[in-house]
Write a structure and sequence with these properties.
The chain is an alpha+beta fold. The protein contains 15 helices and 23 strands. Helix content is 33%, strand content 27%.
Amino acid sequence: MSGRHGFRRVLVANRGEIAARVIRTCRRLGIETVLTVSDADAGSVPARLADKVAAIGPPPAAASYLNVDAVVGAAAAAGADAVHPGYGFLSENARLARACMAAGIVFIGPAPETLEASGDKLAAREHAAAAGLPVLPGGHVAGPEQGAELAGRIGFPVLVKAAGGGGGRGLRAVRDPGELGQAVAVASAEAEAAFGDGRVYLERYVSPARHVEVQLLGDGQRVVHLGTRDCSVQRRYQKLIEEAPAPLLGDGLRGRLHAAAVALGEHLRYRGAGTVEFLVDPEREEFYFLEVNARIQVEHPVTEAITGLDLVEEQIAIAEGRPLRVRQEEVAFGGHAIECRINAEDPRRDFRPSPGTITGAVFPAGTDVRVDTHVQAGATVPAHYDSLLAKVIGHGADRGEALATLRGALDRCAVDGVVTSLEMHRGLLADAEFGKGGVDTGYLGRFLESAAYVRDDHGQP
């Protein structure tokens, strides 16, 4: 390993904007990159940014980006020292981490045991409770009868949740006891199809609530937090806007969130970058553990903006076996940052995906504006993958300044050839309720209804 950071060559096992983002940090550190590509991505912008590409299969993710053997085989053939999995796909896959180890390749992420503990939501609940974190009442259900008995004890409404995955799949809110049996069956079938694991569990449903998370870095011995992020602007549990720090939290509540996240990281002997997510009850100033994301998050740029740290660089340093390069008292927070995820989908038609060819793409550049993207004119948006085109981030001395900066940035954005969510984001940033800060997870639905964004297939109100 002769690179400045030890690793000479890293295989980036992902695509899209996160692949481009990891490649840029590796290039700055003097590390060669090899990018895995499916046939659909052979001519992509990240493929042109990487030093080399490794074809791993046809467009369907199951035959390419989710193929552990193909990824490890590509890393071995390329002589890669390490694999960076990005987010999504195999980023939290313990089998990939173990396969890398068996091949003498470093997995840039947590230990396989940590991935298993965090990836199984029931196991994660148990670890959180053991670390002293507040956990919502609930538990595993093997069928409708057990579900009815548990729901009767914890009270309606309840959430039916998949034990083996996330991202909104295998997740159902139930308010009527008569609908519970069907919800358990549907969630279990959906979870089995998505994750190969049909186990589900129930939790008490808290509403209104905010979705607040804490970024962690750990080296297996020591854990530090990098502050909070608010991810409450969501549609069907998919985040659309994130900001750091989470606004309108009292210092006491914020401090308790930091401490709880660090306690869980220490309990897990966490190594790498990770996020502990919480459900916050704004009225009672209480919070509950949701889950651990044992990878870098889509929304990590807002944390980078307020801390000045490069989280991918920190992931690499930790993976090389280095101790944490920052102590808690050395983490300095500066200002506020807000991120919008610009997707190739149509909010006016129930967020229908809009694959196609980008005929024009203009993104702003300037002080306190960051754009993470993998598209430019001529780029193809395949139908096979996530619809994320770009993340636009505004940073300012305070939330008002960050909001103004981001509004100006979005006004200068233009993407042609596919339908995007740009217009919706401009409306969100101009909305008075969002402007006040501290919105709950039901906010986006209210906004879309008030803005007449819910339309039929012909685009009519």
